[in-house]
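B., you asked whether I could sanity-check this one before it goes into the benchmark set. Here's the sequence:
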Amino acid sequence: MPVAEHVLRHAAERPERPAVCGQDGELSYAELAANIQGAARHLRGQGVGPGALVAIGLAGPAALLTAVLAADLAGATPLVGDPAWGRGRWARVTGAVTPDLLVAEPLPCAPGPAVTPDSAPADRAWACFSSGSTGRPRAVVRRRASWTDSFAHLGDLAGIGPGDVVLVPGPLTSSLYAFAAVHALAVGATAVVPGRRPGTALAARAASATVVHLVPHVLGDVLRRPRRSGALRTAVVGGAALAPGARAAAAEAGVNVVAYYGATELSFVAVDADGGGLRPFPGVEIEVRAEPGAALGEVWVRSPWLADGYLGDVPGPLRRDAGRWASVGDVARPYREGEVLRLRGRGGGAIQTGGATVVAEDVEEVLRTVPGVGDVVVVGSPHPSLGSVVTAILEAEGASPPSRALLEAMARGGLDAVQRPRRWYAVPSLPRTQSGKPARALVAARLAGGDPDIRRLV
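And here's what the prediction gave me:
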């Protein structure tokens, strides 16, 4: 069933219920349903129907969600991109596939009879961009069933229902935040979607929400919400590993954390709803394929939630085998069914130094515990004899970063000698991907290019 049909049903049952609250306006379910129908009629009038690809680059969350759901109702595949892109940029990022229509302005409402969808579970019903930490976007497309059939599982795990107010504090160009907003509308909840990261206003917005979807580094900002409000009960956290102590801090604030691991190409893979560790998401099988005796192996997944692939058949990290298993190159400790998945990050984040392999995420996990470190990216810097040396780039919590002496002391206490950074830098703020994860490759490129904002700690 198209997500738009869920919205139309909610509008019939509870027309006055707030549906979308965004910077470009607020819509009840009745208003959203009317806008979706009118926009779908407009799309049909433009020749857009089943099999068409509709590129959507709108800054306003309400207008964007209306366009997405109108394309869904019309039977087309919506593809959400950056509102700042022009036609040339769209052509480059979509590769050999040319969208049938580019929506750069809010869709008008055309009069006429109700649009009735003609849909099937195997229809291509959603496409979005994935850059991971590389900054190079690829358009990932998925079938309707792989998109919508997981909704009920997430609703059960996080307890999200029609009475909730769901805060989605990030850009809908990110698959993490787009899924959160569409899921909220599918279950009949209210989606509060600022459309961009609200910064200092985040705590105030969280005060009226019952559920929030976010990435780990934003969780602390949410927990600093006004104490007088006890509405927020659940934080759904994805995109990266939780910082040490984050779950305990959330529990102290009365907020349950549902953390998950996944990828745009794989959707949900594993979930930790109680602090007991990551276990397979419903319907998911996991294998960690490691060489005999190896400490790490590659994570492979088989599930109903896998994406079809990349539009235009552009190259990317997604790989498949003959058994319908898929991988994007993430690595983990050896795993057996029934155990906790001990993820160690993306294989491309491994650093070869002096004949040893260092996983960047292992080092970052320790350095995030240093007082005064807000976030950190670890990369390999070229070295004439070692190949690379471990290099840490810090984002400080306050006005200045911790001293190098403190950093090195903490590294000696928590890391093996080969893992300890040999070079230390500080930056006012780390560049991030659309989903809010530190953009590791961009940080490495800026460092190599001598960016003056990256200051060496001595």
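One thing to flag: The first strand starts at residue 18 and ends at 22. Otherwise nothing jumped out at me.
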